[in-house]
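Morning. Coffee machine broken again, so started the prediction first thing and wrote up yesterday's gels while waiting. Chain of 287 residues, entered below exactly as on the submission form.
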Amino acid sequence: MNTDKILSLAATYAVPALIALVILLIGFRIARGIAAKAEGVFNKAPNSDPGLSRFFASFIKFLLMVVVVMGALSVIGVDTSPIFGLIAASGAALAFILQGALGNVAAGVMLILFKPYKIGDEVEVGGSRGKVTGIEMTATTLSTADNVKIIVANGEAWGGTIKNYTSMGARRLDRDFGISYDDNIDAAINAITAAAAANPRVHAEPAPWAKVVNLGDSSVDIQLRAWCDAADYKALSTEISQPVKEALDAAGISIPYPHEVKIKQHVKNSKGRDSLAKFKALKQKNA
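Came back before lunch.
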């Protein structure tokens, strides 16, 4: 093969392929840069939402990457017009095949527009609970308290029940404490509410509330209801029991616990036992 033919083949195939590769590398990099800039611009807008900004940025990056791929195909001589025609002709089939993914995208748009939750909220969606760390085109990402990453499809999130534990700003902690039937109920209620009011996480208004809610088998159950900031709920839930127990001890209030009593009865006469004794005696006699 002579040099002129090699150069001709290189000009025909190698050079366009190299140019197409450069277009892909540079184009993808530019697409990511534009998407990042767009997200920054969206975040600076008044009343911006990080989830909304990230969603639109990812959508812009996707569209730009499609344009870059089409441009690279054109450079190597691929006629892209039939591709667009094929996509248009097979739109119904693609929509059927990708209906799950398209449904997740549509659900993502609804989540962004109606904002049942935002990044940083603690929610329960799709049967999973955690803090929202990302809202993408097709899925919502959660992070649990024990640092587990959960990805929930937007279709499952939007199509099911959404519980947002932080959007209301404040939450009420309900906790039951049992006291003995012999103890003074009013003194126990005063001790419980005073212990709760002394906690800086508990709101002064509405003030902590405690009342008898159940008469159990071995205890009078008093329920404490205390309001706090949503961000303080978990901390208050773990730390409220000790000061209440100490307050009840100081007031001379006892906390009962169930006892198990076992009764053994000695049976003087037993037909079964007497029959067994006679059988053993007869066996020994015959031996």
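The chain has a mean pLDDT of 83. Going to sketch it on the whiteboard this afternoon.
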